[in-house]
Specification:
Blueprint lengths: L3 H18 L1 H4 L5 H6 L1 E7 L2 H12 L4 E7 L9 E7 L3 H6 L2 E8 L9 H13 L5 H13 L4 H14 L7 E2 H10 L1 H7 L8 E4 L4 H10 L20 E6 L3 E7 L5 E7 L3 E6 L5 H12 L8 H7 L4 H6 L5 E5 L14 H6 L3 E5 L7 H10 L22 H8 L6 H20 L17
Parallel strand pairs: 1-4, 5-8
Antiparallel strand pairs: 1-6, 2-3, 3-4, 7-10, 8-9, 11-12
Helix pairs in contact: 1-11, 4-7, 7-8, 9-10
EC number: 1.13.11.93
Keywords: Dioxygenase, Iron, Oxidoreductase
Protein name: 2-oxoadipate dioxygenase/decarboxylase
Length: 443
C-alpha cells in the first residue's frame, strides 16, 4: 500500500534512536524485539454471520475477541461496533504481539440507514462469501486440535491470506457512492464483494517524533495524534496515521462498462502503547475526555489527574501493574507493612507497568473519520433522534458464538496475582490494591 514502507522505515529509525538514548527506559513496556515485531491490523465485515466466521479463522491462531467498542457513539460516529482478536496470555502476547481490530456494520441502525437502504445492503451482503468452506473447516479443526499438519497448515494460510487481500474485482461505482454518502466505512464494507486489511499498524516508542518526521518527508498526516497526551509516564494508547492515499481500482458504471478509477481506503496507522489503567484510572480518563480533554490541550489539568511518574500512578491506584518483591532490599529492622502503596514507597516492591494491549473507541473513530473524504464526514443519513440498533457486548458474544473477554479483567488478574505473590514472598496477609481517590473533572 502507498507510503506504508516509509512508515515502517521511519518507525524503525525512531525506535533505534530511543533505544540508543536509554535502553532500559525504552523497554519498560516490552522488549525492543517485541516492539519491532508488533503489529495490529484492521478489517471490517458486514453481518453477524461474517463476524462469526472471521472469529473462527482467528480462533485457529489462538486469538480471542477482547473488548466491545461502539464507534457509533463517538464524537465522529461510524456505523460499526468492534472487537479486537488477540492472544490473552501474557507470554503468548510477548511472543506473538498481533491483534486484528474487527468491525461489523450495524445495518439496522436508523441513524445511518433507512429501511430501503438497509434492505438492499443486507441483500447484497447475503449474496457474498468472504470465507470459503474449506478455510472454515480447517480453522475449526485447528482450534479443536490445537494445530494442523504441515499440508493443512499451508492450505489454511494460503486461503486466509487470499480472504484478506484487496480484491481486483471491479467496484459498482454507483452503489459504492450511495453507501459513501452515509459513511466511507459503510462503503468499504458493503460496497465491495470481499473484505481486506485496511491498515497494518507498527508500534513506535516516540509517536511525536514519528509524526514530525513523516511530515518532514512530505507525507500528509491526519490532523492530530489520538488518545491521551504524551510525555511523562505514558498510559493507554496513542495513535495517528497518514491519510489514506488514492489507489487505482477498477470501477463498473451503470452501463456495465469497466473503467479505471481510484479509492482512498487503506491508510498507514502507527501506535505508541502505555500502561493499562485500573477501572478507577479509566473512569478518570473517560471523564477527562468527556470534559473536552485532548492531547493538544492537556496542560496542568492532565498532570493533576495522572502524575508524571509511573510509581506515583501505581501508588495512587490509577494503573495496572505487576507487583514484584525486592528480594535484595536491606533489612533495617522494620517489618514491611501490609500495604502495597507503603511497600512501594519503602522499597519492598517495585511496580512494573502492564502494557495496555487494547484500543480506545474515540481514537479509532477519530482515525477512521480522518481518513474519509470530506463529503463523507457528514455521513449520518438519519435524524439524531432515530432509533439506534441494539449493540452491546452481549450482542457481540451472541453473534460470535464466543465469550468476549473484558480487558479490565485481564489487567486486574495480573495485578491481583502478583500482589498475592508479594504477600507470600514477604510473609504478609493478603494485600489489597491501592485505591484511587475520586477526582472531579469539570464539565
Amino acid at each position: 500500500m502507498p507510503a506504508y514502507g516509509t512508515l515502517v522505515e521511519v518507525a524503525a529509525e525512531v525506535n533505534a534512536e530511543v533505544m540508543a538514548a536509554d535502553p532500559a527506559a525504552a523497554q519498560e513496556l516490552g522488549s525492543i524485539e517485541r516492539v519491532t515485531a508488533e503489529r495490529h491490523g484492521a478489517i471490517r465485515v458486514g453481518t453477524a454471520e461474517e463476524l462469526r466466521q472471521v472469529g473462527q479463522v482467528f480462533a485457529a491462531l489462538g486469538m480471542h475477541p477482547v473488548g466491545f467498542y461502539d464507534l457509533r457513539e463517538a464524537a465522529q460516529p461510524v456505523p460499526v461496533v468492534s472487537t479486537a482478536f488477540r492472544p490473552v496470555d501474557a507470554d503468548e502476547l510477548a511472543a506473538n504481539p498481533f491483534r486484528v481490530f474487527t468491525s461489523v456494520l450495524a445495518t439496522d441502525d436508523r441513524r445511518f440507514f433507512d429501511a430501503d437502504l438497509q434492505r438492499r445492503l443486507e441483500e447484497r451482503l447475503a449474496r457474498r462469501e468472504l470465507f470459503g468452506p474449506l478455510l472454515l473447516r480447517l480453522a475449526a479443526r485447528a482450534e479443536e486440535a490445537g494445530g494442523l499438519d504441515a499440508e493443512d497448515a499451508d492450505a489454511f494460510v494460503r486461503l486466509a491470506v487470499a480472504a484478506f487481500a484487496l480484491s481486483p474485482e471491479p467496484v459498482d461505482a454507483a452503489w459504492y457512492a450511495e453507501l459513501e454518502r452515509v459513511s466511507g466505512v459503510a462503503a468499504d464494507i458493503g460496497g465491495v464483494g470481499s473484505t481486506h486489511v485496511n491498515h497494518l499498524t507498527p508500534r513506535v516508542l516516540d509517536i511525536d517524533a514519528l509524526y514530525a518526521r513523516m511530515t518532514a518527508r512530505g507525507i500528509t498526516m491526519i490532523d492530530a495524534i489520538q488518545g491521551p497526551p504524551g510525555g511523562g509516564a505514558p498510559v493507554l494508547l496513542r495513535q495517528t496515521s497518514f491519510r489514506a492515499l488514492a489507489e487505482p481500482r477498477r470501477m463498473r458504471g451503470t452501463d456495465g462498462a469497466v473503467s479505471e478509477g481510484a479509492l482512498r481506503v487503506r491508510f498507514g496507522e502507527v501506535e505508541a502503547r502505555g500502561c493499562a489503567l485500573t477501572p478507577a484510572g479509566r473512569a478518570r480518563y473517560d471523564a477527562w475526555l468527556a470534559a473536552g480533554g485532548s492531547p493538544a490541550a492537556s496542560g496542568a489539568r492532565w498532570r493533576e489527574l495522572f502524575p508524571d511518574d509511573a510509581a506515583a500512578q501505581a501508588a495512587a491506584g490509577l494503573t495496572s501493574v505487576r507487583w514484584v518483591p525486592v528480594t535484595d532490599r536491606a533489612r533495617d529492622g522494620r517489618a514491611p507493612e501490609a500495604d502495597l502503596g507503603r511497600l512501594l514507597a519503602d522499597g519492598w516492591v517495585r511496580a512494573e507497568p502492564v502494557v495496555y494491549e487494547d484500543f480506545l473507541p474515540a481514537s479509532a473513530a477519530g482515525i477512521f473519520a480522518s481518513n474519509l473524504d470530506a463529503a463523507c464526514e457528514e455521513g449520518r443519513a438519519g435524524a439524531d433522534d432515530a432509533p439506534a440498533a441494539t449493540r452491546d457486548a452481549a450482542w457481540l458474544a451472541g453473534a460470535l458464538g464466543r465469550d468476549v473477554v473484558e480487558p479490565a479483567d485481564l489487567y486486574g488478574a495480573v495485578s491481583a496475582r502478583s500482589a498475592a505473590e508479594v504477600a507470600d514472598a514477604l510473609g504478609l496477609p493478603p494485600l489489597r490494591q491501592p485505591e484511587a481517590a475520586p477526582v472531579p473533572v469539570p464539565a
